[in-house]
């Protein structure tokens, strides 16, 4: 979502006075071999058993709706228009279907007060703790419900973090499809169990911020992704989210293979709705909707926020145009019925027909009263904020996530934990809250004070900010704080004195530029902001015990100082949200052992990664082409293949104690090369498909309109004209090649249930892992990670190892405290996507897969073999 960009775009573009309905964009060819194939018609929703009841209810309601009511609920009423959320659909109030409130962000209810500002996705990912990630989701869901939102615009699982410079990686959970998938699915469960619809986003390939958006002068970039790479990497988290029953999908701004995601028929109709069996509805990202008939046929179900590419004029590609397109026969009524049914069924699926509170807040103002239709300019006002406090005790979950994410990268000489009697000197503006107030910069579009979240639409306002320096002062009696990023003159330290240096690195959405970074870290690259590297070096020259604490959106290059002898300890605290202080102090002073693990690799130089990943795509005339030439090989998959040692590997994270692992393996389901055939699709709602009556398309007499509000009614003249075209049936729309209207009752072999063929989730092997605290002094939590290595001599190139499952233990007591955890390997986990077969294939059923178990991708200690069903201690392959 790009909320902040809107005003600037609209101001700039309104000068151009462009007609809003027709435009020809320059479009460069995608590279040889990439292309967007046709896939029609858009598959109906409703054929999956777990949605059956909701679809039956939806059918009953939608059959009572007029044409204009159906087109009303498939689109927003316009940006900043009416109802208080960042997106608001039209209602069909006559039949009891309300306007829906769609609200940012993935880490808290945005643009309002009395909410919790949770740690960002990347921080949740760094905990590697499934129950905690779920608990964060549940708390988020409660807050969205409490504020009256219907739809939570999260979780973010794309970007996946392919490009370390990418601006929004921190909204997601880490640079690995499985970590991202597990965390995304658990967030969805947590949110949706509260009766709030989650939105998995952004489908797909939004791996950099710059040039992502279509505008009247230039198309958004094209992410050119080969089919196997799409399935095994970028689509994987979406499949898992759909399997978890996610209610909504948001398309990305960019194109895939040259076709914009909001109207890419192969992606939406083919992959999402047919292969992955998605039953909910597909919305555009904000202002990513760029065509009327085309996007409807391609499978888009909801236009957000309803406006055309140039917003704020009350124009839409849908609403009245969609009404017209159905009346004139260009969009089959069947397609509109499916769009409306998907939206209404999802509303029923999460019980929103029963006691769902209406919105209690306004995204547009913090005041009690405000304009009811801010974008209308002339608008009545009234109460818009009720200040409902939804925080409950969610700070506890937020703090636990922040704390359990803290990742100890290095602890030479066991400098940490500190004792309360240490003499501490703390350096860096990142240690204390922004002196202007934690919410001083709108959309957090500045990096001042402790960095708790990135910037853009993926933020929430802090109700308060627990900053590190305050928490440190509570624990230690002798603290000198130098709130500066350049070293001041300090008294000569004693040899045992400890210095703590705070660093940060920020990123966000392209709608804002912060310190020269256009969303992506295009200016700072992977260096600490505010000259942080110099600060560490200077402090390290004075003090012999230095702890570096890093608040960051992602990977950072630590080479300028990581080997300095006095830099003994390094903690990554990621983006902690409001609970930055106590969470950190608990780790620094040893109330708990650190237990976070890196959700990405820390490389030594950007050139350690392939050019397609290490660089952002720069400006081009026409469409910027972002080709995924590295295929499956990004982050640790690439480093391992090229035998490049990172500074700290994906999954790395130390504790104050150490752990011993032992494991056994057993087979659960016998495998065959292909999964068992899928079942047929169940029935879907059927409606009359005759061209509707003119009366269904026009406003009741005397209805007074609000200027620039987006309505779905046509003028009586337009309705009559369109209807004449529709019933005559002679003027045909110029349908795309490959267009058809016949629904398939079978569907693709790889499909069959939500997320794909249900047999893909059969557990093939199960490892029982015993984790023991091998230390005598500190309690701690461990993360058991399982990586699969495919058999030698298969016909597919596969990464050396790939994460497939993980479990975090509870607190293991010092002196042999232990816990058993189960790690699971599914059929899908030992399959590759075969492009020719268009299915998942187990390349060598009786081959020796090695399931590596350990505490980091480069800390694998136990090998379990699927052929002999034995495990042994062995040094890992990387
Ligand atoms: C569309 O939704 C708006 C907002 O709820 C409402 O005012 C209008 O009457 C609706 N139109 C139809 C056709 O129901
Ligand atoms: C993009 O093109 C590649 C290469 O032909 C193809 O494998 C893939 O399926 C296409 N993806 C989409 C979404 O069209
Ligand atoms: C029907 O209306 C839509 C929306 O205005 C328009 O794009 C399309 O070309 C029309 N179809 C015909 C056959 O006139
Ligand atoms: C918002 O919630 C408060 C308290 O729960 C309630 O009194 C008020 O009527 C609600 N406001 C709206 C607009 O629903
Ligand atoms: C939060 O809610 C309280 C009532 O619970 C209200 O007094 C206050 O104004 C609200 N807003 C903020 C920013 O605290
Ligand atoms: C750890 O510290 C010791 C003593 O200060 C030093 O000899 C050693 O090189 C350090 N190791 C690392 C990895 O920095
Ligand atoms: C941990 O493993 C090491 C090496 O296998 C062994 O020497 C040690 O006794 C084990 N410690 C515990 C507490 O199990």
TrEMBL record:
Keyword Glycoprotein: yes
MF annotations from Gene Ontology: beta-glucosidase activity
Pathway: Glycan metabolism; cellulose degradation
Catalytically driven reaction(s): Hydrolysis of terminal, non-reducing beta-D-glucosyl residues with release of beta-D-glucose
EC number: 3.2.1.21
Domain Fibronectin type III-like: 782-857
Cleavable signal peptide: 1-22
Family annotation (InterPro entries): Cellulose_deg_GH3, Fn3-like, GH, Glyco_hydro_3_AS, Glyco_hydro_3_C, Glyco_hydro_3_C_sf, Glyco_hydro_3_N, Glyco_hydro_3_N_sf
Keywords per UniProt: Carbohydrate metabolism, Cellulose degradation, Glycoprotein, Glycosidase, Hydrolase, Polysaccharide degradation, Signal
SUPFAM superfamilies: (Trans)glycosidases (SSF51445), Beta-D-glucan exohydrolase, C-terminal domain (SSF52279)
Keyword hit for Oxidoreductase: no
GO BP annotations, alphabetical order: cellulose catabolic process
Pfam families associated with the record: Fn3-like, Glyco_hydro_3, Glyco_hydro_3_C
Coiled-coil ranges (or none): none
Class in the EC hierarchy, top level: hydrolase
Similarity-based family: Belongs to the glycosyl hydrolase 3 family.
Stated name of the protein: beta-glucosidase
């Amino acid at each position: 979502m790009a909320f902040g960009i809107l005003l600037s775009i609209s101001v700039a573009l309104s000068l151009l006075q462009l007609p809003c309905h027709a435009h020809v964009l320059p479009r460069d060819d995608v590279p040889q071999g990439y292309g967007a194939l046709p896939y029609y018609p858009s598959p109906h929703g409703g054929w999956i058993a777990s949605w059956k009841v909701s679809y039956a209810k939806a059918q009953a309601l939608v059959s009572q709706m007029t044409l204009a009511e159906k087109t009303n609920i498939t689109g927003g009423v316009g940006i900043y228009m009416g109802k208080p959320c960042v997106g608001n659909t039209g209602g069909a109030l006559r039949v009891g279907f309300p306007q829906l409130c769609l609200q940012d962000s993935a880490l808290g209810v945005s643009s309002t007060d009395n909410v919790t500002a949770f740690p960002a996705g990347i921080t949740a990912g760094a905990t590697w703790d499934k129950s905690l990630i779920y608990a964060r989701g549940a708390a988020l869901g409660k807050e969205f419900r409490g504020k009256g939102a219907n739809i939570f615009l999260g979780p973010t699982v794309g970007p996946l973090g392919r490009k370390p410079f990418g601006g929004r990686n921190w909204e997601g959970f880490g640079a690995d499809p499985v970590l991202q998938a597990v965390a995304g699915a658990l967030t969805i469960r947590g949110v949706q169990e509260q009766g709030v619809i989650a939105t998995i986003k952004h489908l797909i390939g939004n791996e950099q911020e710059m040039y992502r958006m279509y505008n009247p002068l230039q198309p958004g970039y094209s992410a050119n992704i080969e089919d196997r790479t799409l399935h095994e990497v970028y689509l994987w988290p979406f499949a898992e989210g759909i399997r978890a029953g996610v209610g909504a999908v948001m398309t990305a701004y960019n194109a895939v293979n040259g076709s914009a995601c909001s109207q890419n028929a192969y992606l939406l109709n083919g992959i999402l709705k047919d292969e992955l069996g998605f039953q909910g509805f597909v919305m555009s990202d904000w202002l990513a909707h760029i065509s009327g008939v085309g996007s409807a046929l391609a499978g888009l179900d909801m236009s957000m926020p309803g406006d055309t590419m140039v917003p704020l004029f009350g124009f839409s590609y849908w609403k009245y145009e969609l009404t017209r397109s159905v009346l004139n026969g260009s969009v089959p009524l069947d397609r509109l019925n499916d769009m409306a049914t998907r939206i209404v069924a999802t509303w029923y699926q999460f019980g929103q027909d029963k006691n769902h509170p209406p919105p209690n807040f306004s995204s547009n103002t913090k005041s009690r009263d405000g304009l009811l239709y801010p974008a209308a300019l002339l608008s009545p006002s009234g109460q818009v904020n009720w200040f409902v406090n939804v925080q409950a005790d969610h700070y506890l979950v937020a703090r636990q996530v922040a704390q359990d994410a803290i990742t100890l990268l290095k602890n030479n000489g066991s400098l940490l934990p500190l004792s309360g009697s240490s003499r501490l000197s703390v350096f860096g503006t990142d240690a204390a809250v922004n002196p202007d107030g934690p919410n001083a910069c709108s959309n957090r579009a500045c990096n001042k004070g402790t960095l708790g979240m990135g910037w853009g639409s993926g933020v929430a306002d802090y109700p308060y900010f627990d900053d590190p320096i305050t928490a440190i002062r509570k624990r230690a009696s002798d603290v000198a704080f130098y709130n500066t990023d350049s070293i001041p003159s300090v008294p000569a330290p004693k040899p045992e004195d400890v210095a703590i240096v705070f660093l940060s690195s920020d990123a966000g959405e392209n709608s804002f530029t912060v310190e020269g970074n256009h969303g992506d870290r295009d200016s700072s690259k992977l260096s600490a902001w505010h000259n942080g590297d110099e600060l560490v070096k200077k402090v390290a020259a004075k003090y012999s015990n230095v702890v570096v604490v890093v608040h960051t959106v992602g990977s950072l290059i630590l080479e300028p100082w990581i080997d300095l002898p006095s830099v003994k300890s390094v903690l990554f605290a990621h983006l902690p949200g409001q609970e930055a202080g106590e969470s950190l102090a608990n780790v620094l002073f040893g109330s708990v052992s650190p237990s976070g693990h890196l959700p990405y690799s820390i490389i030594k130089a950007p050139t350690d990664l392939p050019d397609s990943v290490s660089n952002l795509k720069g400006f081009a005339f026409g469409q910027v082409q972002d080709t995924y030439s590295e295929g499956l090989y990004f982050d640790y998959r690439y480093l391992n293949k090229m035998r490049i040692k990172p500074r700290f590997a994906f999954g790395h994270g130390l504790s104050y104690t150490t752990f011993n692992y032992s494991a056994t393996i057993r087979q659960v389901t016998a495998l065959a090369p292909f999964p068992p055939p899928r079942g047929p699709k169940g029935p879907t709602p059927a409606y009359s498909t005759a061209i509707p009556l003119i009366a269904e398309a026009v406003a009741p007499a005397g209805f007074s309109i609000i200027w620039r509000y987006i309505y779905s009614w046509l003028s009586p003249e337009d309705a009559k004209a369109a209807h004449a075209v529709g019933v005559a049936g002679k003027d045909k729309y110029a349908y795309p090649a490959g267009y058809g209207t016949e629904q398939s009752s079978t569907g693709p072999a790889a499909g069959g249930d939500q997320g794909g063929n249900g047999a893909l989730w059969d557990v093939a092997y199960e490892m029982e892992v015993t984790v023991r605290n091998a230390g005598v002094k500190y309690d701690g939590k461990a993360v058991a990670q399982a990586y699969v290595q495919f058999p030698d001599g298969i016909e597919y190139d596969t990464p050396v190892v790939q994460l497939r499952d993980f479990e975090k233990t509870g607190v293991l007591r010092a002196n042999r405290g232990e816990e058993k955890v189960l790690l699971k390997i599914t059929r899908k986990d030992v399959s590759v996507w075969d492009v020719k077969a268009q299915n998942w294939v187990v390349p060598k059923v009786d081959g020796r897969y090695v399931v590596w178990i350990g505490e980091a991708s480069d800390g694998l200690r136990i090998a379990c073999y699927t052929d002999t069903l034995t495990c042994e201690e062995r040094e890992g392959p990387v």
